[in-house]
Protein 1
Amino acid sequence: MDLFSAARRLRKPFVVGADASEELPLAARGLIGDGFTAALVAVDGAVDWLCLPRFDSPTVFARLLDWQRGGQMAMRPTQRPFEALQAYDPDTAVLETLFEVPNDGTLRLVDSMPWSDDPRACIHELHRRMDCLGGEAEVEIIFDPRFDYARDTPRIEIGEHGVMAEGSGGERLALSTSQRLDWKPMPNGGLRATVQLRSGSPLWCILNWNASVIEAVEAHRPYEHLRVTRRKWREWSSRLTYDGPWRHHVMRSAITLKLLMYGPTGATVAAPTTSLPEWIGGTRNWDYRYTWVRDAALTLRAANLIGYPQEARDFYHFIRDAVDADHGLELMYTLDGGAVPDESELGHLRGAFGSAPVRIGNGARDQVQLDTTGAVVDAAHLFERFGGTLPLRAWHKVAAIIEDAEQTWESPDHGIWEPRTGKRHNVHSKVMNWLAMDRGAQLARGFGRVDLAERWEHCASQIHADVVARGMDPNHGHFVSCYGEHRADAALLLMPIHGFLPDEDPRLVNTVAWVRSELGAGPFLYRYRADDDGVGGEEGAFILCGFWLAEALALQGDLSAATEVFVAHAEASNHLGLLSEEIDPTNGALLGNFPQAFSHLGLVNAALRIDLALRLKDEGSAKAPHLIGSLPRKALGLG
């Protein structure tokens, strides 16, 4: 109960009302996973998002995208309304939900997916245990799988140890229960059962993907798996090297980023969900269950900074295996390095909060985003600076993409934000190509390629001069989004973070102030003005950009403002410390796919930056809080 006492002090309980048709807010969920896929568990006891057997597989439960048709597996009190509290077992991805029912017992639900950080040991199971902690309470169990994004309602058979759902394509999902239940069909599909729980007699429910038979719960060894999963998560978490003032937030972000990594290949999904709207009722709904190389590189860069070099190593094995020397670096890949599917719409699904369309696949796969190389090379440089050794084959792939960037940096591209209005000369993309050359030159010397180092240093100088000459507003002394256009772009905040110019340079100071004045909404920040990106509709403030702002302010020495911005974003997380892609600045509602790797890596980087700045200040040092790998060298004539 101590776990929930702490949660109750920090957050108010959710009240789950009498109307079961009322959608829960996006934030009312926790994340569990096994290194292959992840599930969202809502505060009403429903698993309402799960793709099996991996992140980008079709859904088996998708109530999140259609409250009536999507499907769910629920364990919860029958009496409504009730209060619900959620908390993670500390330093793990084991989620606990406490239900408090007026004039009845108190129930605790424990959810986990067996995990040992060994992809060979993955068993594709989800384990749920409901305990009555006092008194007596009636619990309902709902088993309503809808395969293939709810296009296939499976046939369900009742057996001795539970039930089995079989889809038209032969997919099978077994639900084993520790008590024999009296299952009844529900009007709109699926089965429902109720059971009276008393203290000391827990109810286990085990979901098992592609099972041949319904096994007894004992055969799944749930107690042993729960112990191992807790222990392995705590062992992994103990490697965290950050011990600053926001350790709780950084720890939860690290675990979340780990949950978004696909164990067999080292790839990282941008988010485990698709089509969660960037604005309620809008059409900015995209599938993020793939590996954007830039996002993954930034994620692993953050992991390296807080003590997780193995994850970074695994990512470069993915780069080694996925990048085709003849075709170069793709913008995004599937989890095993394949081509991302064509974008299509699922018209039969209502969409989360009525926000259609629901999309699978991603049309941005064919865009040109020239900033990606810089993120990959910078992360590789940091990996080596932290004692890692880039494998020779991986180095060859990295060198090849740097050489491609040499030939293409002068070209226009679509840019980091994936507008659908064509290509521009994006300043951020040019800066990231400069970064690729600068960091690539340092890597090349480590591999004995002085010729490449000198060539890339020269190219870095060319790019730098071009950006300074063409990427500024000459009348106001700040950088702009694109050559020849007077538009603000939050990605410009990466210029001080990557050390494009000295911290005190007035052009950087002016740029940070201008971006904040143009795109700010209190402590939050929009990534750009979305009225001309070819998509249409509104969107929320972009959480990653707010963390960039906090870092930029810390580099400029404004620690008070940096801390204020950081804290506002960290506290915008849900009751479990999870962040989505965007936020509505007017009411704090989380928006977009959830949870989002971008947002959590941003939190990690900003926490490190501000913590370093605070320590330098305490020591009386005048040094700026540059993290390893962020200082410019020959490109600025400083080295």
Protein 2
Amino acid sequence: MAQANIIDILWLIFSSVLVLLMQAGFLCLESGLTRAKNAINVAMKNAADFALTIVVYWMFGFGLMFGGSSEGFIGTSYFFFDLGLSDPWVTAVFIFQSMFCATAATIVSGVIAERVRFNSYLILTLVVVALIYPVSGHWVWASALGEGQGWLAQLGFVDFAGSTVVHSVGGWVGLAALLVIGPRVGRFVGDRVNHIPASNATLALIGVMFFAIGWIGFNGGSTLALTEQVPGIIANTLTAGSVGAIVAYLANPYFNDKTTDDFFAPFNGCLAGFVAITAGCQAVTTLDSIIIGAVAEVFMLAAGRWMLQIRLDDAIGAIPVHLVSGIWGTLAVALFGDPEVLGTGLDFWGQLKAQVLGIVVVGAWAFTVSYIVIRIINRITPLRVSVEDEQQGLNVSEHGARTDLIDLLTSLTLREKDLDLSSRLHVEPFTEVGQIALGYNRVMEALSRAVAETRAIVRDIRDAIITFGEDGVLVSFNPAAEQMFGYQSDHVIGRPIRILFNQDMPKLKHPGSMILGNMSINKTTEAIGQRRNKEKFYMEVTLSQGEVEAEKRFTAVIRDIDDKRRIEEQLFKEKERALVTLSSIADGVITTDAKGRVNYLNDAAQLITGWQLKEAFGLPLGDIYETSDPASAPAKELIRRALDGHAVVIETQNTVLIDREG
């Protein structure tokens, strides 16, 4: 074997190692962008994709993709071939292409993360690796070993390193799976799109860096030889990815409605740039690669926004990155590719037609086959986990992998159910979770003390305190309320609040207005209560409104004012009787205020003085005794009679009593 061939084999093996790093990139990216309770499951799927790909691709996939071509549609050789004893070049191509195959399969993992059964997912991976990817790959890349040419390649379709063959295929399969499986629990509630945060942005960024390293081999190794094209291919690849990250960072505010984390955009923007340049990186200029990478980000962000609007829950945004950017990159071959480098002999419109045909045909194949297979799998063994398992997390439900954090969450759930404020969490020293448990225990200690003090206050307070929900049903009843109304709390809780009021009172109106009879929120109002023995009494009621677990809750503080009202009524009656008495006695009575101004004359005083109450009211008492007009001065007559002994005028602080003699 010539020295040049050995160098090419070495380059291909080295590129394979770089592409293998992309598998680590997928693992880190998906684990970082999903929740911690599913991180182990995501990692297991990525590792399983790699292991299954190597074996199944050797058994079936490689032969279907690169074996002797049958009319350009399918390969017919290299099944179960001996990797160690075969032509080293064939083995090198197998190693390189098995990495590509694993990449296509793993894209699906990110799309449907956090909700899929592990074993059902492995069946889907087998179908992708053994059938979907190899067949469509044969249509485009069959000539790599000189065993024939695929029918799409014969028509001039160009996909240098796999924008369509690898990335769009993975995206189409992911889309089919997503349509069958549906969104994660809680992602969409009515018209609202809930934000599901990533667990580890740093880990996701490490994954992106692995991708950047891996794409050097992904695109650079696709020459299948160490040629003078390699440096330019690598430079175009890195340029498009870098521009993609920058444009995504700048454009994200115009597309992100805060239903995804902001740091998503540069991560996925970089990957979208890599995906888009992959189809034509060997045939474009640096400026072309910049444009291709920039436009890919706009398409990616717009597609991600549109998917949320139609309620498609792609956990890591893989469909916009791999499918949409892959389609754009494949079209960009015709828009920007150098015809001489492409070597298809087609003009612009002919090349564009070939690119569109390849996108449509490969997409239809990948989506249709995967959708049918997924439907069949879903009938035999459900792809989706139960709601309970999804909420618990796939680390535990699928792999039985318990962590300190899972144990902590389980303990907190148990505390929530038993409502025992005296129970405490186990503290594992020297760990972050242990510190959280210690902090929780301290909070519970303080809460227990506060609750004990509150209960003592509520128990000992003389005013009745009751709470009820928006439906008017009683929720709590303190001891003072028991004593005031004559009900035991366990007998009255759950019954409507109107039983505590006189039945003549209006019943509870619509809870939204929160008016009980004529009583309003945060105002004290008098009402007529009714005890258990049907005895009615006066009470003051003060209503306040709060919220418990997103439900409205209302509190009424009630004070028994029956004795107070009865005393006031008695005093009022006494006052009325006194006024009647004063009005009817024969002696004249004049009352004044502290400043000597008249405020009352009884009938006798009006007769004696000649003054009407409405005329004398507010006048100084001296004006009643003395007047400037003798002809109309009964007050002077009063004084004259007093001097003649016909009347006695007695003055106190605020009252004048005229005692007429004989």
Protein 3
Amino acid sequence: MITTMHIKNIGIIEDLTVEFNNGFNVLTGETGAGKTLIIDSLGIISGDRFSKDMIRKGENYSFVELNLFLPNNKNSDNGSIIVSREIYENGRNTCKINGRLVTVNELREFMNNIIDIHGQNDNQTLMIKQEHIKYLDNFIGSEILEQKDKYMELFNEYNNIKKELKNNYGDEKEKQRKLDLLRYQLQEINEANLQNDEEDELNELHKMIKNSEKIYSNLMETEENLGNNAIEAINNSIRCLDKIENLGEKYQAKLIELKNIYYEVQELSRDISDMKSELVFDEEKRCEVERRLDLIYSLKRKYGNSIDEILKYKENVEQEIFNIENCEEHNNELKKKLEIIEDKMFIMCNNMDKLREKYSWTLSENINKELSDLEMPNAKFSVNKQFNKQKQFTENGLNEIEFMITTNIGDDPKPLAKIASGGEISRIMLAIKTVLADSDKVPVLIFDEIDTGISGKAAKSVGEKIKIISKKHQVLCVTHQPSIAAKGDYNYFISKKVKNEKTFTDIKLLNEQEVINEIARISSGDVTLNAINHAKELRKVG
């Protein structure tokens, strides 16, 4: 249920907080005081579209917040849930459920299970065809719900087996297609004959070939400098130190160092000469290296980021080929198991179909009785039930259910969602909700001026139906009918005030005497003695 509603900057509402109660909450008041804005705000928090024209003049955002008490909801430990939506002039939305940011779609999906709004702008799950089978099953009750639970166990197992068969390539065409692909990949990798370290070696060789002329000229110059200059200079220095080595140990030590350098430079010169002779200038070799590198790059794009990864991919391909080629026996077992489950599911679906057939008539009869009470004797509600003999199983079995209605004698039944008249929709919804009150899981129902165009006996019946519904749901109802207002458990008066040349909406929970006065006002326009007596009589009956 909604415990508290907080609205800011919507139309003439500046900052409004109202506490609602369980049962039948009636909203009445002056024309243009903001009753519709309160319902619009409930639509906004339920994920409806929002026009920036709704933002209060002079402000740049609107805000709606609901405190909900839903003891069995998974989003809360203690049953308390806070839902909010803030909308700015530039169209930016901030939606939250218990402080967690959500998208508008997530907010709408959550609130679809909390609030149904019935009126000129409807937002109820009864208009969604896919929900009709759930309504029917809930109406049938445990007789089908217990079967449905057992069916769901089989349905889940059925889907798991189908998934495993798909993963095991139980489909012959899929298996062959996959084998062809895997064998091609294996052949491509095998023909490449990759070696783990070869890419680094090839890159090094390619770099050398590409820069061979530059390398050769610099090695040549280095060799000449070492041979013609460095070695000769060191040799001359050795001869000089050799003449004075016996004149001191320090000269002898330096002579030894210089001789060592001489041998190192000689070795270095030979290494440079060997490097020069190893240089490759062959254009054909360069093309061969580049082709090999291109092949490795192509395989890396397909099978991994390195040769090591490609070789691991090859091992996986070999294993998968083995698995596919040897899965036939296991798949045959799965297929037999699937056939057994399908047969069991089909039997259960037939049983559920019979129950739905039987209770579709009961549901239709009950709703049509309610429609007659609501001054719609020519309206006929029916349930269109289809059975899929092709065994295309769904979570609800093989049935497809859609609620149909005809409002005039001689008309063909139409889907519920295609009824044009807002007044007709409201009363049809009310009739359905009355019958489904015990099984309907949506806790909060909003009725926005569903009494439009009715009076007298019909209005009295509408009030009685809503009162019945309010025993199982929290109901908020905007009305102009005294006979409906008289049924309220809690009556709220909505008014507008002008302060500093600005209009503000105000809401007040009425005491019993104020309720009588308000029923008298909407009954005759003036709070006269006769109107008060009439209001008391209605209230007594209510």
Protein 4
Amino acid sequence: MQTNPVSLPQAKESLQKVFGFDEFLAGQQAVVERLLAGRSALAIFPTGGGKSLCYQLPSLLFEGLTLVISPLIALMKDQLDFLQSRGLPAARLDSSLDRERTLSVYENLAAGRIRLLYISPERLNNERFLQSLRRWKIALLAVDEAHCISQWGHNFRPDYLKIARLAKDLGIGRVLALTATATPPVARDVAAAFGIAPDDVVNTGFYRPNLKLAVTACSSQQRDALLLARLKARAPGPAIVYVTLQKTSEELAELLRAEGYPARAYHAGMEAADREAVQNAFMASDRMIVPATIAFGMGIDKRDIRYVYHYNLPKSLESYSQEVGRAGRDGAESICEMFASADDVVVLENFSYGDTPTAEAVDGLVRDVLGRGDQFDLSAYDLSSQYDVRPLVVKTLLTYLELDGAIRATGPFYAQLRFQPQRKPEEIFPRFDQPRAEFLRKVFGQARKGRIWHTLDVDQASAALREPRERIVAAMNYLEEQGDLIVEAAGLREGYKRVGMPPDLGAVTRSLAERFERREQHDIDQTHRVLEYAEGNGCLTRHLLAYFGEQRGDCGHCARCLGAPGKPLPPPTHRLPDQSDAQVLDALRRERHAALQTPRQMARFLCGLSSPATTRAKLRAHAAFGRLESTPFHAVLKFVENS
């Protein structure tokens, strides 16, 4: 790519005039310089370190669209409010927009009035969006939370691997990957995926001198009293209390309110409007406390969070670093304390076990997929239901097959399009020349007409009319953008090409099953690294930084440096299966549930871990579901296998 004609002095002028900043923060100028030179870059900045400016500023300077991919809708909304308040031409496309606002965004994109567009990774599964994307000139692709691309990152998302491939397919020469949590191996994975040179990795370090880290070893029964004691002893201030389970956030909020504190729960099981209300109240408050699962805080730019408490153990040091990083973004002193109980290990480990598919499921799914021919399509949802594997795990398995060269994705598409005419056909067709008008008449003629909605089987119409499905989809997409139709897609399917049939399918399925087992062990190891951190005697800050590859001496301000010694956590209090559990197991087997055929399925059920099969069979309401949720999964599995 040719060097962009924009100079660094011009960038600094925009920094001052548009954003109101006199100087770049650490690392920002280095990233912007690389982008101005036409190179891709990886920015590894701590939470609150100013990653977003690294693409917001260039979006004003480059000719073309800056496309930002982020899984955080809250971040999109917050940043968009900021940008629009300064008159910057930015927009977002996400599931929360109504039809009118969505059409307005597309209209402005087509007219070139938008310079920066936020989307979620899932938007790349939208066939109609991808067609639009190919019409736009993309000057910069920014990928937030880029650690998700690495299968060894703390939040691996298969959809992220498609981003790197899409960037190559679209010929996007300038990519900016951003993350606040990347170990050296994860950083190498991200850089390799996007072709980022080692010299273009900008890592400012993770050290935040205003964060006072503390760990208190305790039993699970002691945590309520410890939290209340801390709140009473410390000055009021906005606080997040991170928990693992949704019910814990509700119970803790009730406890805090009973003690006179302004507290509200937040978790993914709440209605979207209720979650937004809690978030807005927290943003406006100078003393509100939110007991929350990890869904809270992602992308929320509240700069005066004074306290972050971990009521439960975080699942990894990456998660912990990201969560404590939400405190003190204004630079003022903030306290981050973990109430470390070994009782939490069982719950965290059981989550990992719940995601691991059985060897039988892997074998059946792989043979199914590779037996569909040289060109095929599938529904991840259908496969999930058929083989009792969680949808995300199905996507991961398909990604592994791609990485191993067995299949190649040809792109997502929808089996059907439903459309609702907003104008009569005689008002639509005359706007087009005769061949195009005739084409549209034929497409409309292929639709099954209902009272309000018409349904079009796109592949069937393509075959009947001998027209490419891409042309049909593009036409419907265009008519929607013009306000002629309301269009809804249904039946998402993924297209694939079989690159080659492996000579030994048994070896392939065994290898994939082992890969999932390694991932399971990796996740469990991550939890034990949290335990090592909690029990260690040395400087907490130094320990955490070393995990991310940063060498630094003792901080002098964490709890360990100030004299609080590390000590072993009290032993866990979980129980092992007994004779009464054996009787329940016998009764379950006599009920002959199709969803509980293998030992692993039964163990997951007893541990309270749902699966597609148990959900479909409505077994979550069964009296035995979760009977052994506080028992280690491996002990439950052994109990099931030996009983």
